[in-house]
Amino acid sequence: MILSKKNKSDVSAITGGENRSFEIIFFSLSALVVAVMLVSGYSYVNNKNAIESLSGEVIDEINQLVFQESKNYLMTAVDMTELSSRISGEGLGALDNNPRLDSLMMNVLTLHGQLLNFEIGDEDGNFLMQKREQNGTISTKIIRRNGDNVSVKWRHRDTNGAISEIEDPKDKYDPRTRPWYQGAKEAGELFWTDVYIFATDKSPGLTASSPVYSKEKKLLGIFGLDIPLRNISEFLKRLKDDLKEKSIGESSIIFIVNDKAEIIAYPDPEVPMIMDEELKKLVPRSIYKLDNANHVIESYKEHLKNKEKRKFNIDVDGVKYIASYRRFKKEEFNKDWTIGLVVPEDDLIGPIKKTNNLLIAISIAILLGAMVLGAILLQIKKSLDMKSRFIKETFGKYLSDEIVSTILESPAGMQLGGDKRVATIMMTDLRGFTSIGERLPAESVVNMINIYLDVMTEIIMKYNGTIDEFIGDAILVIFGAPVQRPDDAQRAVACAIEMQIAMAEVNRRNLEAGYPEVSMGIGINTGDIVVGNIGSSRRMKYGVVGKNVNLTSRIESYTTGGQTYISPATVEACSGLLRIDDEMSVKPKGVNNEITISLVGGIGGPFNVFLPEKKDLPLTALKETLEMEYTVLAGKHASDDLYIGKINDFGMEESIVNADIDVEKLDNLKITSLRIKGRYYKTDLYAKVIKVIGKSPNQFRMNFTSVPPESAEIMKSILSEFGK
Q: What is the per-residue pLDDT across 311-325, written as a single tens digit (0 to 9) for each?
């Protein structure tokens, strides 16, 4: 075919255009590929840094979880050992016949299932030990020494509580020769032994011991608590399994070692001990004797060059690892222990490396892979954020922002556990709430309590009180623990007065919700208490115990609605700032002598908060005598017997009664019926005697502490019809 010049020029134009189009597409595609590769490379570098940063956060959180679990597990023993030594510091007595001490030690083992043995030895070589058996029972070992005469006796308990005693003349055990005894004696304070293998259950553990001193600082003996370490290894195993499920750290190794390179805990509970062929017994295993841990040994050697917490990378046999170590600080835990975590780098950033290789070959796949990776990163970030929030929310909560700040700024200064101090205790209670609860639906009862606690909690926090416990409609508050201040008693009284004033707001909310009005009694006492952590290593409650806590409850029981009674010690601690409206002598249960409790109406000084001065409420004279049928709930006439009282001066809150028996101030009464001019009304009223007017005839003034709505309507109708 012969082309004309015109045709040739047309073909050239076409092919030239196609070539130029191809070149444009080629260069465009090349530019696109180069651009995508550059963007991919840039994205890879940034994403790699982000992954490494996130992996660092994961490693830090793992270290923190391991540290917190280990600390909580071990510090329970510290608290129990030190608390026991302080409680038993006086009148320790003989170890072979000491029911109080025996009971204390058994209760500690019963409450804390992770503890193995609880023992005490004295300077004469006498010894008492409570030992947890494999079937869960607790056996007692008693060693009594009298010169060269040694008596060793075991007291075993079966699962039904039956006790059998066995003498063991071959037992030559002497606590004075043991490291736990000698260490605490020499240190004069809490002492931790090195790790050793328990002879009883063939597992690694250690002993926390603390000396017991008399008032004259004479050493009476040494307490010791044996703590198996198997539980920490089991925790590491659960943690590693959890990481495997999340595809993190498939080949990772988590462990805890001491300064002797002995393994304290390992995901396999059998690893921390090894049979010594020369000694023919189990001993703690060295980290250097792990068969599969050459990289661990290398990283541990590297770590020895720097004692601080650090993270670094190591390369062993062409495999890259990310290593991290966290050393237990002396102020956190008095043992030179280190948490080690070694994770293959590919377990953390392997997926993104594969994605990068794919992006180099296929530009589009790089972009898609980047999008997928972005989604994965977003999911990982969300997971880490959720985990971070969970960890923060897991730690104990304090009701005062000031207490939280104090703990965060100076955690070493907060000695929570086994601390005896002077504090002021407040106990509140809603008067007559039990009878209200019996008449209302459960949901309404809960709503009423929530209204009350909502208002009261705000006021307590305002005065830096620590709410120890909500007990139904009662509140137990501590002023002086965990943070102690010189004005604890004054703040407690000011808080109580403001709480009484706030009852008007509580009742306003109750009336809006259709609930009855309530009133509150408050008791306050100041004195020695023992504060400490109560619970387990996983969950603790900051609690308070002691006779002064019980006395506070007794004082509160003397109150009627709207009253705040305080003890003599609290009056003295308030330095003349109080307005005392009334006083009375009482002899509470558990107190040998009478004490004078004071009805406080306000406090001046920097607080300047007062209740209106309370006078006898006006009563209505009745045209006819009102008779009430009642029983005495508390007092010398307390029984189911019914008595008749006559009322001529009557009111909705108080009344004056002429009785056929003599009563005493603070007696509690239950009024079952009212009768006037031949009419009979069945009631469910409760009252408290607030004043004895005369003994001949017997006359007293009472305050109604619980008035149900039905009974209130009856009282209103009597006042309306028979009031003068």
A: 667 776 777 777 777
